[in-house]
Amino acid sequence: METINKQSSPKKLLHGVRPSRIIYPILIGLAVVVYMLVKEVDANTFSLIEFTWYTIFWLCIALFMMVIRDLGYMARLRILTDRKFSWGKAFRIIMLWEFTSAITPSAIGGTSVAILYLNKEGLKVGRSSAVVMSTSFLDELYFIIMFPLLILLLNVKQLFMIESPEHSIWLDSLLYFALGGYLVKLVYLIVLTYGLFWNPRGLKWLLLWIFKLPVLRKWKHGANKAGSDIIESSKELRRKPFLFWFKAFMATFWSWTARYWVVNAMLLAFMLEGYGFADHIMIFARQLVMWIMMLVSPTPGGSGFSEWVFTQYLGDFLPTAGLAASMALIWRLISYYPYLFIGVYLLPRWIKKHFKNNKS
C-alpha cells in the first residue's frame, strides 16, 4: 500500500491548499454578490433592513450555530479517534480540514489532505483513513435519513417551487436533480457500508474493475489506493460497538443541523414577523436540496454558485431580490469566509511544525 509518508506525497497534497488560493473563492463569491446587488438593489431595499437588538441577538445565534457545528465536528473526531486528540488539536485539524474544503471544488473536498492532517498529528495511515471514511459514512447517513423524513413532513410541490414576480415556477428538473442526487448518495452509502463492514476486498476488486474502463483508466492508481484504504479502515471499524457509532452519529446530527439553522436564525434577525414553524422546516429542507446542488459546483467551496442558489431558492422567504442578495453575502460571511482566514493563519504554522525538520 502506498502511504502518504513518501516525501513527494505530502508536497503534492499540500500544493493544492496553499494559503494564497483563498483569493479565488473570495473574488468569485464577491463578484457574483456585487453583480446581484447592482442588478437588484434599489432605494427601497435597505429601508427593509432595520438593525435592532433583536437583529443583533439572532445574528449572534447564527454565529453560535457555527460554533455548535464545529464543536460537533470536534467531538466526532475525538470519538472516532478514541479521544486520542485533545480539544485544541481537534480544533486545529477541523479548521484545516474546513479550509481545504473551502478552497477546493465541493465535489472534491478535503478528504485526501484530511488523511495527511490526521497522520501528521499522530495517527497511523490506516487509522487516519478509517477516521476520514467514518466521517464520510456518517455525513451521508445523516442526509439519507433526514431528507425522506422532511419530504414526509412537507408539501413536496412547495419544496420545489419558486415564487417569481410573474408566476410560481414548479421546478420538475430540480425535483429530478434532487432525487438523482439522493439516489447517488444512497448507492454510495450502501457501497461504502458494504465495503467497510462486510467485504472490503470485494469492494476494492469492484473499484479496480470499474477503473479499467478507458475513460477512467488514468485514475486507476487512485482507485487502488482508495481500495487499500478501505481494507485498512475496515479492520478498525468492524470492532467498534453500537454505542461508539451512536455517539458519533449524534455529534454528526448536531453539526449538520446547526449548519442549516444558521439561515433560519438570519431570517429571524431581519424578518421579525411572518415565519411559523412550518416555514422554518421548509427553509431547513430547502437547504438540504441546496447542498445537493452545491456539490456539483466546479468553483472552490461552491463560491459564486452558492450565493446564486441562495438568492434563487431561499428568495421566496424575503420581500425583494436585493435583500436576498444581501442576505446571501451575510450568510457566506458567517458560514464560509471565517474558515478561509483561520486556515490562512493556521496552515503555514502547521506545515512549518510538521515538515520543517521532517523529510517524510
Automatic annotation (TrEMBL):
Organism: Marinifilum flexuosum
Membrane topology: Multi-pass membrane protein
Any Gene Ontology CC annotation: plasma membrane
Primary localization: membrane
Organism ancestry: Bacteria, Pseudomonadati, Bacteroidota, Bacteroidia, Marinilabiliales
Entry protein name: Lysylphosphatidylglycerol synthase-like protein
Pfam families: LPG_synthase_TM (PF03706)
Membrane spanning stretches: 21-39, 51-72, 93-118, 141-162, 174-197, 317-347
Top-level taxonomic group: Bacteria
Keywords (A to Z) from UniProt: Cell membrane, Membrane, Transmembrane, Transmembrane helix
Location in or out of the cell: Cell membrane
